Amino acid sequence: MQIGIDQLAFYTPKTYLDLVDLAHARGEEPDKYKIGIGQSEQAVIPVTQDAVTLAANAAVRVVTDANRDKIAMVLFGTESGIDNSKSAAIYLKRLLKLPDAIRAVEIKQACYGATAGVQFAHDFVRLHPDQQVLVIGADIARYGLNTPGEVTQGGGAVAMTISANPQLFNLDDETAFRSEDIMDFWRPLYRTEALVDGRFSENVYIDFFKAVWRDYQAQSKRSIGDFTAFAFHLPFTKMGLKALRAILPEASESQQKELMANFEASRQYNRQVGNLYTGSLYLSLRSLFDNAALKPGQRLGLFSYGSGAEGEFFSGTVSDEFDATESQKWFSTYFKSRQRLDMTQYERLFTQQLPNHDVLLDLSDDDARFVLTGIQHDQRQYLDRNNK
């Protein structure tokens, strides 16, 4: 029995910042961002969206009347949680009208949380092949205005259903993981922006990748020649390129060209959206499926990394039934409909933070189905515009 990703969808608001504009405003050469960082644009998240609404707007594309009653768990990976006690998955479960006989849990380990959910879901479905698990990766990446990390901001959500006999991606059983207590990136409870040691974090990321790649090879007896493409966690896309280059000498010259071409396909969406934290790897995987000429049965390698730190390398094969047509159309429509912000608009949206008191938010600039309307009695208020 094959188990893996049956559906994979994405959502982020339509407002974005062109990084050429950011470079000019910050006195930098645009190529420092476009080539040196590997980013072109980044999503800008309005105050009317949070991890819950981002997740809901993505999840409605994979949760339908056809599978709603099959979903037995919601595993919500995020480092942008909205409550220190109550799981974001509980809010999402209500917005999606999922049944009450369900587990709904939030998972936190920096950008690794969604991958933990995928692996937990894989084991669950093996025991319950008639059921599915909804896995979410939803975050808002914030480092602050005029900071070194400003160019790697962004946000959005991925939503995946894990099932038996999946339509998209069959997960292999072999997986290699590693964890260490490392202070390369963290966000204390009293901060809205993250703290990061950028150069150190890059080195840890690559060291973890090489370590789990070696462990995976020893476990699976596979080599780089068994892979058509790799997808990476991409806080910025140059990071994944550096990791891939670390193992490219293991491949033949012809395969190196194929792997590099497929890496370019895998980072196309991430270049235009920015950092998703927990969802980053899976947006890269979606981009790979949509923009590379993949064939059923080809093996893909995935590297997940969460600062602090946790890393995992796992793999799978393209499903026989995979069809990227619908996703390609969605992204094409989405990118054509985006609203480019100037620097004044960007800085205004960035500084609009939810207060710690009751408030009613202006929704006129947010056309999403699911929105955050405000706070009442210290409770976040959500609206599904389809249920007015």
From TrEMBL:
One of its GO terms (molecular function) is hydroxymethylglutaryl-CoA synthase activity. Residues 2-165 form the Hydroxymethylglutaryl-coenzyme A synthase N-terminal domain. It is an enzyme of class 2 (transferase). Keywords: Acyltransferase, Transferase. CDD domains: init_cond_enzymes. Pfam families: HMG_CoA_synt_C, HMG_CoA_synt_N. Gene3D superfamilies: 3.40.47.10. The keyword Ubl conjugation does not apply. Its EC number is 2.3.3.10. Residues 263-341 form the Hydroxymethylglutaryl-coenzyme A synthase C-terminal domain. Transmembrane segments: none annotated. InterPro entries: HMG_CoA_synt_C_dom, HMG_CoA_synth_N, HMG_CoA_synthase_prok, Thiolase-like. Belongs to the thiolase-like superfamily. HMG-CoA synthase family. This is Hydroxymethylglutaryl-CoA synthase. It comes from Secundilactobacillus angelensis.
